[in-house]
Structure formats: structure tokens, C-alpha cells
Design brief:
This is Dolichyl-phosphate-mannose-protein mannosyltransferase. Helices cover about 60% and strands about 5% of the residues. By secondary structure, it is mostly helical. A 5-stranded mixed sheet has the order 2-1-3-5-4. The termini are far apart.
């Protein structure tokens, strides 16, 4: 008979296996952001220690190295699905590491809640299936959390060495781990100083902390800061959006960004539904956004209070990390502008929520009732999360290119700038391509240089389309009797009207050929030239 003591290990091993199996069922084409990164990964002599040469992209060196090794072993052909397996593996291993944390490892109900929360999160499945480094950020936080909690009470060489090894690995695959480790070490120092352990100021612990921060400081100063230089400069409206504001305005905006990070640390999907519900019942839209910020903050405080006795180490490290984020955010040194930027905080909030919910259920319900509730939550979480993963849509650009080859292969193809990264990855290319922009990385975003968008710095930091951009078709397609227009990653069909109007005047009437998800193909031809 199978020993019961092995069940937790089997349960943990099933998580990454499940994620890999689900991702295997979704072989979608790369999207725009993915395509921009893949373009760099395919550069034959890529220097992973220098800023990436195309599209102002950036990724940690460890992620780049692993991705290139996988492409070399399994082939660098579309749809590059092996890189989705890498993301799924990072997320899956991150969940396993969270399950290994002592307060969760000892609590079967907390283990199930962790899996239900994370595998029920659409955000987790999105980045488990995306060819970007955000999955590695999640993994890195889970790794240093799992290896860092023992340092609250232990000073032995095994625990210290394991933590240092975790920091070394995490530092190679994550941009955010220096913030995480700094916050954790601050919290560990406070908790050890407040304890009555005889070795609370053990020299080995101090040396370990110093070595960890020196290593991560060197990684940032001599590597990561250089890797992100083009991205920070080209997208200053995202990463430094506060130029020209007064002190009061700065503080208000930074505080709002900090509260948004707390919201996103819980996975924004369910809080977004709460916000939508509040707006639906009559709360003004602006107030509904502030309301979910306060709800997230209150939830965080409640979880800390509930879990502080049963998992003091986890609570302390979580508070330390969030304190570090708060200080850097309010100082303007950190900008978590999008939900994906806060994914590195999700291991902390998921673990904290699991411990708290387990404690509440255990204190208020019989064991069987609690088991039914968490089992139901697991089933519902898997249904929601896996459903999100399996319904991931593709833009079907390959299908559109095949249609071009089958119907009018000699007609030139004009592509909008936002669709260029995906278009350039798919082979074979049409004979004549119009509208391509220079993708070389630089201090100005490639789409601004290509005149698709206006310079954000000149328009209050907003990313606005250039109203003159559609006119580029007139010059590029002059004299043509037929033309394909290929749109990809554009906002909506309504935004295509100016382009179709210019093409109709320059070449001839335009008719839709294929519509995809966020993509569209149109055929324009003079009377008598149409196929």
C-alpha cells in the first residue's frame, strides 16, 4: 500500500505536471510582447550580458540563457512552444516551493488552499503560458522565501548555505529579487533581535546577509541596470512617469501606485470583479477603484493579524518585503506599473492567505466541513484557472499569411507597426512587405521612431497614436493596383478606418478577408485587378 507520508510529495509533484499538460494543449502563436523577446533570442551571436538589440526588450541573463539553450535543443521554429513549457515549469516549481514552507507543509488544509488560490488565478495561468520572464520572477520569490524562512530561527551552515544558493540562482533569473531579499533580511534581523535566542546575532548569519546583498548589489550595478537601459529610457512614461509634478502630486501618485501593487499582489482578477460590482450598484467609477485599493489593504492587514501566531516567520518576511516595496515606491525608485510587475509578490500573499484561511476554517468548523470547503475550492479553482488557460486565443496570423499565399501572393503586404514583431517571426514571408520599421533598440521607442505613436514626453506621458501614421500607406503603396493590409495587436476594428480610407484612395476599395482575435486582413484592389 502507498505510504501516506508520501502523499504531500505526490500532491506537490502533480502541480508542475498539471501545468505542463495544460500548456501543452494551447499551442498558440506568439503575441506582440512575446514576439519582440523571441526576436532577440533568435539573434545568432546574442550577447546576453548586454542590452537586447531589438525592440527595447529586457530579460534576466539566466532566463535568456535557459531560453536559448531550449531553442537550440528543441528547435527555433514557430510557435516556439518549448518556451511556454519553461514558463509553466517556473510557475509550477514556484508553487511547489510555497508548499514546502514549514507552516504550509505541516497543514494539509493550507496546502490545498494554496493550490486552489494559485491555480485558480487567471493571472498565474496567463504567465505560465507566456514567453516572458514574469514566471521566473514568481519562481525566484518563492525560492528565496522557502529558503529564507528557516533563517528566522536557524544559524546552522546548512540553512545559511541553502539560502545563499537560492539567492545566487534567483538573482540570475529575476530583476525583482534584490528588493525581495533586502526586505526579507531586514525582517529577519528585526525578528532575531527581538527573540531571546542565544545566537541571535550569530556572525555566520550576518556574513550570509552581507554576502547576499553584495552579490545582488553587484548583479544590479554591473549587469541588470545595463540590461534595462533601453527599456527604461524608451518607455520613460511607464517607468518614470512623474516628471514635472509637484511634491504633493508625486506623493499622491506614488501612494496610489503602492496601493495598486497591493491589489495586484493578490491577483487582480477577483478584485477587478468586485470593483465592477461596486460600479454596477451605483458607486462612481473613480471611487470604485479607490474602494478596491482599500479592500486589498484591509485584507492584507486582516491576514497578517490572523496568521501572526501560527506563522510568525512568514508574516514577518511578508511585512519586510512589502515594507521594502513601499519605501522604494514612495521614493520613486520602483514603479510597479502593471499587474504583471507585481507577480513577484504573489508567493507571499498566497502563502499568507492559505495559512489564515486554514486557521479560520479550523477554528470555526468541524474538520469534515472544512475538508469539504477546501476540496470544493480546489475543484472550482482548477476549473476557473484551467478554463482560462485552455481558452487562450491566438491571433491566427499564420492563417492570414497562408491566405495571402493562396489567393494573391504577388500583391504587396502592408503591416501596421504593432503587428510587425509577430509578422517577422512567421515564415515564409510575402514577396513584398511595406510599412516595416527599424526594430533596433535605442533611447526612443521603435514605434515612436517609426511614427506610429507620438512621443509620450510631449503629450503628458500618454501613449497616443500618431494621426499622420495612416498617411504612410499613400507614399508606400503609390502606383500599386492591389494591396493587402494586415493588422495585428491594434486596439479595435474602428481604429482601422483611417488606414482603410487611405488605402482605398491610393489603391482601390478594401474588403475584409479574415478577422482574428486582435488581428485583421484586408484586400484592396482597383476595379478589374481584384482576384
Amino acid at each position: 500500500m502507498f505510504p501516506k507520508r508520501h502523499l504531500p510529495f505526490v500532491f506537490a509533484a502533480l502541480v508542475p505536471l498539471l501545468m505542463l499538460l495544460v500548456v501543452a494543449q494551447t499551442p498558440v502563436e506568439p503575441w506582440g510582447d512575446e514576439a519582440m523577446l523571441i526576436t532577440n533570442l533568435l539573434v545568432p551571436d546574442l550577447n546576453i550580458f548586454a542590452p537586447l538589440p531589438h525592440y527595447e526588450q529586457a530579460a534576466p541573463v539566466g532566463y535568456l540563457w535557459l531560453s536559448r539553450q531550449l531553442l537550440e535543443i528543441f528547435g527555433a521554429e514557430p510557435p516556439f512552444h518549448v518556451l511556454r513549457y519553461l514558463s509553466a515549469l517556473f510557475i509550477g516549481l514556484g508553487v511547489v516551493l510555497i508548499l514546502s514552507i514549514a507552516p504550509i507543509r505541516r497543514d494539509w488544509m493550507a496546502k490545498i488552499i494554496v493550490v486552489a488560490l494559485l491555480l485558480g488565478s487567471p493571472m498565474i495561468w496567463i504567465y505560465a503560458n507566456e514567453i516572458k520572464h514574469y514566471s521566473a520572477e514568481f519562481f525566484a520569490s518563492a525560492l528565496v522565501l522557502a529558503c529564507g524562512i528557516p533563517l528566522v530561527t536557524r544559524s546552522d551552515m546548512a540553512a545559511l548555505s541553502l539560502f545563499l544558493l537560492a539567492v545566487v540562482v534567483a538573482g540570475l533569473v529575476s530583476f525583482t529579487v534584490p528588493v525581495v531579499v533586502a526586505g526579507m533580511l531586514m525582517a529577519i534581523a528585526v525578528m532575531r533581535l527581538r527573540s531571546d535566542q542565544p545566537d541571535r546575532l550569530a556572525p555566520a548569519v550576518v556574513v550570509t546577509a552581507v554576502l547576499a546583498m553584495v552579490y545582488l548589489g553587484a548583479i544590479y550595478l554591473f549587469l541588470n541596470r545595463g540590461l534595462v537601459v533601453w527599456q527604461i529610457q524608451a518607455y520613460a512614461h511607464v517607468y518614470s512617469p512623474e516628471a514635472g509634478q509637484g511634491l504633493a502630486g508625486l506623493l499622491v501618485k506614488r501612494l496610489g501606485g503602492l496601493l495598486d501593487a497591493v491589489v495586484n499582489a493578490f491577483g487582480p482578477s477577483w478584485l477587478s470583479r468586485v470593483q465592477g460590482g461596486l460600479h454596477l450598484i451605483g458607486l462612481p467609477l473613480g471611487l470604485s477603484y479607490h474602494a478596491i485599493r482599500l479592500i486589498a489593504l484591509a485584507l492584507f492587514a486582516a491576514l497578517v493579524i490572523i496568521a501572526r501566531k501560527s506563522a510568525p516567520g512568514l508574516v514577518g518576511l511578508t511585512l519586510g518585503v512589502f515594507a521594502a516595496v513601499a519605501v522604494l515606491q514612495l521614493a520613486g525608485m520602483l514603479h510597479l506599473s502593471y499587474p504583471r510587475h507585481a507577480i513577484f509578490l504573489m508567493p507571499f500573499t498566497a502563502a499568507l492567505m492559505a495559512i489564515s484561511l486554514s486557521r479560520l476554517l479550523g477554528a470555526s468548523l468541524p474538520q469534515k466541513s472544512g475538508a469539504v470547503i477546501v476540496a470544493t475550492a480546489l475543484v472550482m479553482g482548477l476549473w476557473l484557472g484551467i478554463g482560462t488557460a485552455l481558452t487562450r486565443q491566438t491571433q491566427e496570423l499564420g492563417k492570414m499569411l497562408a491566405h495571402i499565399r493562396d489567393t494573391a501572393p504577388e500583391a504587396p503586404v502592408w503591416i501596421n507597426g504593432s503587428g510587425q514583431p509577430v509578422f517577422e517571426l512567421l515564415a515564409p514571408r510575402p514577396n513584398t512587405v511595406l510599412g516595416e520599421m527599424d526594430s533596433a533598440s535605442g533611447p526612443v521607442a521603435w514605434q515612436v521612431r517609426g511614427a506610429e505613436f507620438l512621443p509620450p514626453a510631449q503629450h503628458g506621458g500618454e501613449w497616443l497614436g500618431n494621426p499622420d501614421y495612416p498617411q504612410s500607406i499613400a507614399a508606400q503603396a503609390a502606383g500599386q493596383t492591389e494591396l493587402w493590409l494586415l493588422f495585428n495587436n491594434d486596439p479595435s476594428a474602428q481604429d482601422r478606418i483611417p488606414f482603410l480610407s487611405v488605402a482605398a484612395k491610393t489603391v482601390g476599395p478594401c474588403n475584409p478577408a479574415i478577422e482574428g482575435h486582435g488581428a485583421g486582413l484586408y484586400y484592396c484592389a482597383r476595379q478589374g485587378a481584384a482576384n
